[in-house]
Amino acid sequence: MNRLVLAEDGVLLREGLAGLLSRFGFDVVAAVGDGQALKAAVAELRPDLVVTDIRMPPGFTDEGLRAAVELRRTRPGLPVVALSQYVQLSYAAELLDSDNGRAVGYLLKDRVVDVEEFIGTLRKVLDGGTVVDPAVVRQLLRRRASPLERLSPREREVLALIAQGHSNTAIAADLVISEAAVGKHIGNILAKLDLPPTEDSNRRVLAVLAYLRDGPLA
Asked: 2-145: CATH homologous superfamily?
C-alpha cells in the first residue's frame, strides 16, 4: 500500500478524504490540520505521497502551498498533490516548477467530481506524472505572459497615474519627483512594453490599454 500524509484543516473533509483514500488502497499514515503538522508528519513518517489543502491555519492564505514547496525542496521527488478552493498563484509556479515538474498535481476542489478520476490522478502523480487543473494553467500563463511584469514598482505607479488621466506635471507632483524623472519613467515603460515610436498610434494610450487589460500587479 502507498503511504500517504493528508493535510486539510476542515475536520469533516479531512476525515472523509482519509476514509475514501483508505477504501481505495492508500495507507493514510497521518491526517493533519496545518502546515507545521504536515512538515513534521512527512519528516517523521516519510510517506510516498502528500495530499494537502492550500489554505490552512494560522493565516488561511497559502500555508499548505508553502509547506509543499518546502517539502519538495528538502525532499526532491516527493509526490505532492495540492487541493484548493481557489487558484492561489503565490508559490503555485514554484511548486509546479520544482523537480522539473515531476510528481506534482494542483487540483481545484470544486472540479473534483469523479472519485475514480481523482484516485487516478493521485496514482499518476505517484508514478511521476504531472496533473494541473486547466483553470490553474490559464491563470499562470496569463500571469507569466503579462508585460507589466517587466515594470519596476515605480514604473507601475507612473503607469497607474497615466491610466487615471494625469499629466506628467500632475504625476510629478503626486509622486514628489521631477517632470524629467517622470519622462524617463514613461520612456522606460514604453520600451519595456515593446511600444516603439510610430506615426499612427499613441503609445501612452496603448500602455494604458495594457494596464487595463492585465490589471495592476502586486
From this structure: Response regulator (3.40.50.2300)
